[in-house]
Amino acid sequence: MTKRSPSASPEFNVREFFARFPNEDACLEHIMAVRFGGTTMDCPDCGTVGVTFHKLRERRVYACPECRFQIAPTANTILHDTRTPLVSWFYAMYLFCTTRHGVSGKELQRQLGVTYKTAWRIGDQIRKLTEKAQTFDALLSGHVELDEAYIGGRTSGGKRGRGAPNKTIVMGLVARDGRMAAQVIPNVKKETLRAVVLDKVEAGSVVSTDELYSYNLLTGDGYQHGTVKHGQKEYAYYDYTTGVNHHVNSVEGFWRLFKASIRSTHVAVSPKYLPRYLSEFTFRANHRARVNGMFDLLVGAL
Ligand SMILES: [Zn+2]
Questions:
Q1: What's the gap in Å between 111 CA and the centre of ligand 1?
Q2: What is the pLDDT of residues 56-103, one digit of tens each?
Q3: Distance 46 CA to ligand 1 centre (A)
Q4: Class of residue 243 by CB neighbours under 10 A (exposed 0-12, middle 13-18, buried 19+)
Q5: How far is the CA of 65 from the centre of ligand 1 (A)?
Q6: DSSP 214-233
Q7: Is the model more confident about 267 or about 112?
Q8: pLDDT above 60 for 17
Q9: Where are the domains positioned within the chain?
Q10: What residues are neighbours of ligand 1 (ion), with CB under 5 Å?
Q11: Is 74 helix (H, G, I), strand (E, B) or coil?
């Protein structure tokens, strides 16, 4: 199983967060920096070179000192007409970046002092930002593990795992370099499984799966495919001809964390919202080495 960093980051702890973002102006200035490269620029209206825009009092707007041309850093973002302070939004995003098991609506309600409805909406919007921030991620490459999991639905008395009713099927992909992806899949038909790999994994990569991916399903597409036979209690397979150690331990580790987190933090997640929670967890896994960078990716996706 891949070791994951603890939730408290040495580079961006909560004291540093509030030192960096003590008030609304500091947050707005940061959005200006991430979206427009700062407050000093060539004015897009009057063309004055290197002019420093200044913040208008009581408004989320900057203006050119030469021609009064205005820039609203939050225009066309989810923050444009929010009545929740920007500091609260920023702190919520900070919590999403530093948590390990996710942030519940109840937790946001407590931390931000807003209603549950507002808290839930903020959490949902931040999960959408994690989706947006990963839209143009490069394909996974090198050596990639795939493993499916079954989330939600009936857990007591009914069938477990494959074929259990009301469960949502998810496919996880973890590259040995640490990058990962996950998505909901409608079924485990050959073409569905093959499409996941074609969509997410660079051709020529080594791919390790369990026996769900039948032998030769991917070799025609240019992947070097190896399977472990979980049904026969085989958990690793060393291919002596290629020197590749096939196993899916890293992606199984991700599913353990994800399932435990959903149970402990959210109790349950409806199938409708599951893709967003997957996105939240893969986003964190992909950027856990740099919390600052993760935070700015969210601001950039606003
Ligand atoms: Zn101007």
A1: 40
A2: 999 999 999 999 999 999 999 999 989 999 999 999 999 999 998 999
A3: 4
A4: exposed
A5: 7
A6: -TTTTGGGT-EEEEE-GGGT
A7: 112
A8: yes
A9: 14-133+289-300, 143-264
A10: 43, 45-46, 64, 66-67, 69
A11: coil
